Amino acid sequence: MKLNIAVLPGDGIGPEIVEQGMKAVKAVCEKYGHELSYKHALVGAVAIDETGNPYPDETHELCMQSDAVYFGAIGSPKYDNNPSAKVRPEQGLLGMRKKLGLFANIRPVTTFPSLLHKSPLRAELIEGADFMCIRELTGGMYFGRPQGRSEDGNTAYDTCVYTREEIERIVRLAYQYAQKRRKKVTVVDKANVLATSRLWRQVAQEIEKEYPDVETEYMFVDNAAMRLVQWPKSFDVMVTENMFGDILTDEASVITGSLGMLPSASIGVHTSVFEPIHGSYPQAAGKNIANPLATILSAALMFEYAFNGMEEGALIREAVAASMDANVVTEDIAENGKAYKTSEVGDWIAEYIAKK
Ligand code: IPM
Ligand code: MN
């Protein structure tokens, strides 16, 4: 097959981790005889610095013309510490999600046997945990308007908006995934307080009837936050709105032992985007110490979701698991002080794939 990929490394550790992921992608393409063509483009703070726009039109054009977008991370302390900045790197990511119509962000959470003892949670609680969080990605408070400040600057407001259509399409997707898994959907909301959540629950209750083979559970987000660390194995497919999904998946990443482990796929109307769930980790930028595994695992999702390359995805996952078994890992998950560099982990995984 022919792969046509837009590569958007972004800020901070983005370029280093994406480079490792591309090593794996190239190794897989060579092995399977796939033709690979890819182009880099700017997004985030680096794009602001060069063009003034965090998601330049050129980048959008490239994404639209590609079969998949492979994304690193965005964000820079330069903007985080400047609340009055008019243009922010995050607008690049949000603009891309909106313009590509990426309404569903799929975040699979699984534990890795060799990492069980790295989790702050007891091994018996997390062993075998395997669920998928489906986060709505183009609605809610992230995009609701009005958003802003009063004239005197002393009052600020965000607006949470959801339409029936937005809820229907994401909830249906959750049921479709659940049918292929353990047939359980947990709808997470705050229906005891929020009007948008009450609409979510109403719509979900209607859609639930279309999938009688799937068990449905409704849960308030505060309770879900607790249950994630108390009994993560009780989840199969969790579906929730944008902000709740953002928060719950960072929480979920501690189950695996490191924020550097969780990949994601964002799908919707136009080209799908594959990116780690973690941020740009500016403190580590350029130091060759960041964990590239979430990004490499995002490449596995890219093969599976964008190219229907199930074997290719499985091979990348196998290589990642093998690197952990061999302790060829970065400092966040290393044992006995023996940490490998970001690039060494990337090389090891590419070589594993090539030799396989
Ligand atoms: C994520 C990130 C983004 C989000 C930020 C960088 C805007 O935290 O992808 O989870 O909040 O969606
Ligand atoms: Mn987040």
Automatic annotation (TrEMBL):
Catalysed reaction equations from the record: (2R,3S)-3-isopropylmalate + NAD(+) = 4-methyl-2-oxopentanoate + CO2 + NADH
EC number: 1.1.1.85
Cofactor note: Binds 1 Mg(2+) or Mn(2+) ion per subunit.
Enzyme class per UniProt: oxidoreductase
Annotated function: Catalyzes the oxidation of 3-carboxy-2-hydroxy-4-methylpentanoate (3-isopropylmalate) to 3-carboxy-4-methyl-2-oxopentanoate. The product decarboxylates to 4-methyl-2 oxopentanoate.
PANTHER family: 3-ISOPROPYLMALATE DEHYDROGENASE
Protein name: 3-isopropylmalate dehydrogenase
UniProt source species: Parabacteroides segnis
Lineage of producing organism: Bacteria, Pseudomonadati, Bacteroidota, Bacteroidia, Bacteroidales
